[in-house]
Amino acid sequence: MRSRLDFTRLRALLAKEWLQIIRDPSSIALAFVIPIIMLLLFGYGISLDPKKLPVAFVMDKPDPTASTLLARFRHSEYFGMVPTTSWGEAEQMLLDRQVDAVIRLQSDFTRRLRTGGQAPVQLVVNGVDSNRALQILGYVTMTWNRWLVEFSETLPGAENLARVGLVDLKQRIWFNEAIRSENFLVPGLMAIIMTLIGTLLTAMVMAREWERGTMEALLVTPVRRLEIVLGKLIPYFLLGMGGLVLCIVMAVFLFNVPFRGSLSLLLLLGGVFMIGTLGLGLFISSTAKNQFVAGQIALLAAFLPSFFLSGFIFELTSTPIFIQVLSFVVPAKYFVNIVQTLFLAGDVASVLLPNLAGMVVLALVFMTLAFRKTRKSLE
Description:
This protein is mostly helical. It contains 15 helices and 4 strands. Helix 3 (64-74) links the parallel strand 1 (53-59) and strand 2 (79-83).
């Protein structure tokens, strides 16, 4: 009985595939150049922490106390204060989209603050973009609270500020103490990049064989389906893992994202994820048999769902139930949670194990589909 897996034939297939990779550097560029470009674009070009937001500041009656609050906003990195002379001018600037918000201190601001009443601070925000409006509201509230704490002991009538409800808060933020959006975006982006790389790397290989007419020559050889699949899988698995290592190095040393987990565990789980995405690419390639069509299907079936349904940008718990259920068949959903946990929190088994189980199931499904679709026949 002949062995089902002949390592001599497998070694020959691997050598053939490596020669094709070396002679066609597009695969190497896809594995190493695309991660660099995407990390640089997303890491530096996209931020969930907007700075220098255009805000107009109006004081009905200027006084030293209100001026100290204005100085606090002016020196904050989150606000770009726009000078105004009246409420009417500030309102018109808001309507013209020259500013995103207007902060107004009414004429009795200082008197009511000193007497222990509620100081009248009016905040008007352009709510077209609800996320931006909530961010402005949070920034203004944070700046106001810090100003109260800093000046409560120096302002006249400070003994009455306790009646305003001033509380000395000691905040502690877990896992992302600096509140940098890069610490959240870059690890999640790694999962998106690896999905794109893994799927596109193998989405082209089988289709390329059919287009060039070399698949027919391969079918008449004694090689088996398993050997064909492994011969296509192993070289691109190594390329994909090289891309993952490059992403980790850039995240830690270029974007200064803290890494608190185990590097070996990240590589192990990344390998499981890579097998699943490579299997999906092989299935697409074997089905399409055309490089252009395979590439388009890979973008639609892998990249777009992983971008929108993985929790990378949008919180899935706030989406409809149908979308949440659909996200369970997206491999990037599990790897995003794994990478963000390993980078920011560490080796948290209660998070890693369920996501690992999901990746294993999807990897088995995609590899089974790829194997069944790979046939030694022209029909």
